[in-house]
Amino acid sequence: MGRMLRNSVAIMLAAMLTITGIIPVGKLAGAPSAKAVGEVRKDSTQTETTVKGGSCDDDYSQTHGTAEMSKSMNESVLTAVSNGDKALYKDVQIGSDNQTLKGIIFRYAKPHNQSVTVTIRLDSENGQVVGRYVLTKQTKSFDDYATQSFINIDAANVTGTHDLYLEFATAYSSVTSTSALDIYCMIFGATSSYAEYTPYDPYDDATGWNKAYKNDSDKNKPYYAANPFYKRPAMILVRHKNVYGNHRFVWANPDAVDKYRANVCNIDGLSYNFNNNTLTIKNFKGADYQIICQNMGKSFKIKLAGKSSVQHMECWGNFWNCGMHFTGSGSLEINKSKQPQNGLYLTSWYKDGLQIDAKTKITAFAAKKNNPVKLEYGEGAPSTKKMVTIKFDKKNKKLAGKFVKGSKSKYLQTFVYNKTKFEKK
What we know:
Radius of gyration: 24 Å
Largest sheet: 12 strands, mixed
Number of strands: 29
Strand content: 35-45%
């Protein structure tokens, strides 16, 4: 009777939310049953599978007390969670190439102080227990969310594709809320035997993250503080050129983690050293990936080692400094496939420029009617000599083209490289 009552409440909630503009999806909206095939991110040592909370199996969830609900065009959650309720996620890929499950990250809303325990089983209601995870963080509302990471995996050698059965236990009860918990997503991290998965929560003050990096005054360093509306958070973001929401951070202000709903994680070929404010790109095979650096400070450098490739790279300085200074003896090839955009892009409110050191090799391409390098300024551009500083390791070397003024704008001053290929040997 209790389960039937909760299901009825969930359906009534869905109807009310539909009227107010938050539209439930799946069976509550008359759609067919959905599978939880998640977004999968891979590199040579680590696979992360992100499963949206709302991608649960509709039929199973509704008959076991839970429901899915759309909060925006691209985001749905698991809701209507009470003590003893269950949910099912079908066909979830864990790892690849014999990688095994090493950690799980939950993103959830829980605006009360009662904990919720989530038990995950493999392939059936009575299947092998993956683990029992106690969600303890309290959020301000159901529109806010917390991140909590776990590396305790009770089941050995979990790999491949599985149906995941979730069961919830909590002492929370309320006559004003139909759910003890909303799950935004779960991220399943898998690695090969020689690598460790280290899920990291930048909101956790116990790690010392905020104390180590907090900065809102020294513009040589990344901007790392509570974010006013006119400043964008410091970050080094990696994303796939074609996959919406495929974001990973090499390093980030917690506000960036919140905005992009992505994780700080290890990425082969990319590393960041806060002490010298340097992003190192070493043999990164990223022809389909973009790197975005934002508000990293005046001293920020990009060190190249070995041969690397990216589809696009940009630096943003939004009411903070973030120049584009390439150093090191490696090479970087940008936008070889000639996608319809710039290869290198710098935008700055201050007079940050493009700088390439003598032994550093950069090649950038552009499609027709585009430019391989574009520099944009919002507070007054520097002189051409200060805007671009390129050093060569031998005399008489020079660029084939030059930087010229781009399209005129009332608010922006633009400079572009006047060839479709930029090559600094």
